[in-house]
Amino acid sequence: MFCASTLKAQNNDTYAFLDLPAASRNAALGGQAITIYDDNLSLAFDNPAHLSEKTHNDITFSYANWFKDVNIASVIYGRNLDNKNFFATGIRYVDYGKFQGYTESEQYTGSFTAKDMVAEAIYTRWLSPHWSCGVATKIIYSVYEKYQSAGMAFDIGFSYHNIEKGVTAALVCRDAGFQFKGYYSIDGSQRFESLPVNLMLGLSYRLPKLPVRFSFTYHNIQKWDLSFSTSSAVSDVMSESSSARQDIDMFFRHTIWSLEVIPTNYLYFVVAYNHRRHQDMAIASKRSIAGFSFGAGFSVKQFSVGFSILPYQAGKVGFNIDFSIDMAAFGVK
What we know:
The protein is mainly beta. It has helices spanning 2-7, 24-28, 243-253, 275-281, and strands at 58-66, 70-80, 85-102, 108-126, 131-144, 147-162, 167-181, 185-186, 189-190, 198-206, 212-218, 255-264, 267-274, 292-300, 303-313, 316-326.
């Protein structure tokens, strides 16, 4: 299957779509926004420890287009249980468009679709004014033509927040789980595959006298080799480099760097760099700004809008737009 092989091009795990950014702020911050704590509800998709009283009664809708026919949508709603316990529930949906099916002898078999979906429940508990922890439970369903799969995954997050010093630190384990229905069987037995577990550590710091915040994330701690899988047709851009250069490059593939400018509480601008994405999208003979991401957002009363763009190669740009509503605007308390 084309879709399945595309999703697995970077690793041997299934459900690789879980790594796709869930909303515009997440995408603008490089795809793994685990240290950003504010009133943006969609950030809880990346770190379940980041729900708070600020996310109560908010609902966020997001839409993204990645290349021509790949469309991604999500929605999340937050609710306070009390002053220490917070809850949110969300859905993410990925549609890869229509494909034309052919047999090995090139006989047309009709068109088919490919889709991935995940529904999740997120719970955060604040242990003290500076410490929070959270867990997310995900139910996953995937269908590529006649091949269907279902599974479950869990996120666990811990965060330290010190607003006075402008520091947030986070440790997150995402997508630890299992399939309970594989895509296919071998000799009558279900074929089960591993999920894309991602252990991450991050730190952000907001300058005391300037509206600027720097963030650093080190992802996939559990796995050193993040090189693009090679074949006779495609090879990793660093495959011919020296061992020392490959090691330095591999370290940076684990990193995401971002800079935010936040002139007011109602406006932000973001630029980030994800070195793994840059190397995965790189073509040895061409220069590219793949790996960079850009975003901006603003709030007006009880409404917020965010937008991000992710360049890949010349003419290949993904974008994400979302808007959030405080349901109090409609009388919901």
